[in-house]
Amino acid sequence: MDVDDLGTIVSIWAHPDDESYLAGGVMAAAVAAGSRVVCVSATAGERGTDDPVRWPPERLGPVRRWEAAAALAVLGVREHHFLGYSDGSLAGLDPAAPVGTLTALLDDVRPDTILTFGPEGMTFHPDHQAVSRWVSAAWAAAGRPGRLLHAVMSSDHLEEWGPTYESWQVFMTEERPTGVPVEDLALHLVLDGTALDQKIAALAAMHTQTAAAIALLGDAYRTLNAAECFVAA
């Protein structure tokens, strides 16, 4: 499957930066091809910090909204919706309201493609996993408009970067993702040149979330983020 085949896209995630890390290249390429792209963030990511004294939620939330606006502007995405839920709370919410909101959005947009997390949420983050459940339920309630694609790690990526993720304590439980062979992916976009420049510029706009990794990895940060991988739900 090529990006040109994706048509209208709805891209649904838990926190600002999820969409840029996991689907920034796909969304930018779709926009460049003339497709409509609608992005949804369930929260503002206001608790996404290791330094809550410096970055209390009431300060970080607005900053991350600004960062998201800047990143999506770089990617060319003009439609972005925040659901307004509290960061870290999604797994404990009654799913009726968010599923209803997402069902209404899918009914309105009638996308050809929906991008979101798989059941494991990439890193087993409870917010990510909740969004995956909500999207699956909303997709079913809306009559399954278009194809539903789940973000995954390829087996090659996990082999190369798994030790780095372990050292960064990325995974939030004792569980670990299973890498998907490249030949089994429904969508595999490998970015280079200007397309990768664009994605990295979007990620760099999310300074509170990416600055440390960019400083640590240098040019390797480009390699880390060059591929975007999805399987059919």
Automatic annotation (TrEMBL):
It comes from Asanoa siamensis. The keyword Transcription does not apply. SUPFAM superfamilies: LmbE-like. Keywords: Zinc. It comes from the Bacteria. InterPro entries: GlcNAc_PI_deacetylase-related (IPR003737), LmbE-like_dom_sf (IPR024078). Signal peptide: none annotated. PANTHER family: N-ACETYLGLUCOSAMINYL-PHOSPHATIDYLINOSITOL DE-N-ACETYLASE, N-ACETYLGLUCOSAMINYL-PHOSPHATIDYLINOSITOL DE-N-ACETYLASE-RELATED. This is 1D-myo-inositol 2-acetamido-2-deoxy-alpha-D-glucopyranoside deacetylase.
